[in-house]
Specification:
One of its GO terms (biological process) is metabolite repair. Keywords: ATP-binding, Isomerase, Lyase, Metal-binding, Multifunctional enzyme, NAD, NADP, Nucleotide-binding, Potassium. InterPro entries: Carbohydrate_kinase_pred_CS, CARKD, Nnr, Ribokinase-like, YjeF_N_dom, YjeF_N_dom_sf. This is Bifunctional NAD(P)H-hydrate repair enzyme. The model has no long low-confidence stretch (mean pLDDT 95). By secondary structure, the protein is an alpha/beta fold. The chain is elongated, with a radius of gyration of 26 Å. The strands form two sheets. An eleven-stranded mixed beta sheet has the order 1-9-18-17-16-15-14-13-10-11-12. Helix content is 40%, strand content 16%. The protein has 18 helices and 18 strands. It has two domains: 218 residues, Rossmann fold (3-Layer(aba) Sandwich), CATH 3.40.50; 203 residues, Ribokinase (UDP-N-acetylmuramoyl-L-alanine:D-glutamate ligase, 3-Layer(aba) Sandwich), CATH 3.40.1190.20.
């Protein structure tokens, strides 16, 4: 599992690793530059004109080493030196000395920054790294503003965009990267949705620091990747039958909002549930039976909403239940949720309107337990815990909420965060902007419910569900881009198993 370590700990981590391995700091910087170049060569052509902007600290040293290595591989490289190189770090100074004489290196002063025009295809930002602790100003700010204004240029940040603090929210301006290539692990602030316009697409490259060493600096924050979820999946045999794959119920829907529960149930079936049923008001029975003939349908007595009157004894036969999509928040829905908590104590996913009811009926929070997974989006979460000034505060409150109520909280969004009662937080690496579409959250509810019904632990069901949901979204959007809708994500779920090589 890949640790996410605070920027304040990185300097000590590097120093300890260098001492433990008996290597020089320059060797570690060289490893980082080689890893970056290995990624870069797969993305960019040698006829691209590449400008590398280097500061006088270690991030600039990374940029200078990258420039040297790419130039030797035949790339058209220009290095721009930004800052006071009389105060350069030792490794930055050494990498400047190692630049080949024929590699153009231009020292930028204030006047150059104001007036120079850049004819580049690719800009690599290596001006400032994780040590930033105040807003950009002076010639660095002018430079970054000018680079941000370049059009039709691909922008790549080395480790972290210049100006972005590693552990806090941004104040002021920062480099607006299309891609950020982070070394060994993503920095904490790269997980914040407020920083999406600056981070762009995130890639993490291995620079040779092994996981056992990283774990010594663990802060209980992890970056969820493919290799972390594959082994969490349950294997079934050729003798497995419908019952082994679980019986799940999706409860919700109301007049005019029946699609949400249909998508949840279909997602559960596509994820592998042996049987999926929907509990809906009477107005939804025919809709679900026609739209999703593979699902069973249970009817509440109410015409338009769920309420206390429903086949209550039938809840016991389900291995897991997802509640909330399209349910509404009126008095009937409140009555249903109160009764549901009283009658069902198995694994459950609480989503959408069920979360909004919890926010209004605070006494129901005491019904949450270790079998509960809450899946709020940012606004639903703030209805539960109050307004937050930034995402760092949300993440903190999510951890506190999870510990207090002993439940798992899935805070949905870019790099969805899963908080566990023991204080661990996992940040997802899959998904993209094209999943920002109505119904995508209902699909996630069905997927996690399905894994719970198949016998996965609550932890594994949640991690596998979140990761595979994002992966299905990536697959669905390959050709449809911003035209992707929630049912496209549902249909891509089977392909996600093929990508993970899970039978």
């Amino acid at each position: 599992m890949l640790e996410i370590i605070s920027g304040s700990s990185v300097k000590k981590l590097d120093a300890d690793f260098i001492a433990d391995r008996g290597i020089s700091s320059h060797r570690l910087m060289e490893n980082a530059a080689q890893a970056f170049c290995g990624w870069f060569e797969k993305k960019y052509h040698r006829n691209d004109k590449v400008g590398i902007f280097c500061g006088h600290g270690n991030n600039g040293g990374d940029g200078l080493a990258i420039g040297r290595l790419l130039w030797r591989k035949g790339y058209d490289i220009i290095v721009f030196l930004v800052g006071d190189f009389d105060r350069a770090s030792a490794d930055c100074r050494l990498n400047r000395e190692l630049l080949p004489d024929k590699l153009p290196a231009i020292t930028m002063n204030d006047e150059d920054i104001k007036h120079m025009e850049f004819d580049l295809n690719v800009v690599i930002d290596a001006v400032l790294g994780i040590g930033v602790n105040r807003p950009l100003e002076g010639n660095i700010l002018h430079m970054i503003t000018k680079l941000n204004g370049l059009s039709e240029v691909s922008k790549v940040a080395v480790d972290i965009p210049t100006g972005l603090p590693s552990d806090e929210c941004l104040k002021g301006e920062a480099f607006r990267a299309d891609v950020t290539v982070s070394f060994q692990f993503p920095k904490f602030s790269l997980m914040f949705p407020e920083h999406a316009a600056f981070v762009g697409k995130l890639h993490v490259v291995n620079i040779g620091i092994d996981r056992n060493f990283l774990s010594q600096f663990s802060e209980n924050k992890f970056y969820l990747q493919k290799k972390d979820v594959v082994d969490r999946h349950i294997s079934f045999s050729r003798f497995s039958h419908k019952g082994d794959f679980g019986r799940v119920l999706l409860a919700g829907g109301s007049y005019g909002s029946m699609g949400a529960i249909k998508m949840s149930a279909e997602a559960a079936l596509r994820t592998g549930s042996g049987l999926a049923a929907c509990l809906v008001p009477q107005c939804g029975v025919n809709i679900i039976q026609i739209a999703l003939p593979e699902a069973q349908v249970l009817s509440a007595e109410s015409e338009n909403n769920l309420g206390k009157s429903y086949p209550q004894d039938s809840l016991k036969r389900f291995d897991a239940i997802g509640v909330g999509p399209g349910m509404g928040t009126n008095s009937d829905a409140v009555s249903f949720l109160k009764d549901f908590f009283t009658r069902y104590h198995g694994p459950k996913v609480i989503d959408a309107d069920a979360i909004n009811i919890l926010a209004k009926e605070k006494e129901l929070l005491n019904e949450l337990d270790e079998n509960c997974v809450l899946t709020p989006h940012l606004k639903e979460f703030e209805r539960l815990v109050g307004a937050c000034t930034n995402h760092k505060e949300r993440l903190s409150k999510s951890m506190v909420f999870s510990k207090k109520y002993r439940c798992i909280v899935v805070l949905k969004g870019a790099h969805t965060c899963i908080s566990f009662p023991d204080g661990r937080q996992f940040f997802n690496s899959t998904g993209n902007k094209h999943m920002a579409t109505g119904g995508a959250g209902d699909v996630l509810t069905g997927m996690i419910t399905s894994f719970l019904g198949q016998g996965y632990s609550v932890e594994n069901a949640t991690l596998c569900g979140v990761y595979q949901h994002g992966l299905a979204g990536e697959i669905a959007s390959v050709y449809k881009k911003r035209g992707t809708i929630a049912t496209d994500i549902v249909r891509a779920i089977p392909k996600s198993y093929l990508v993970l090589k899970i039978d």
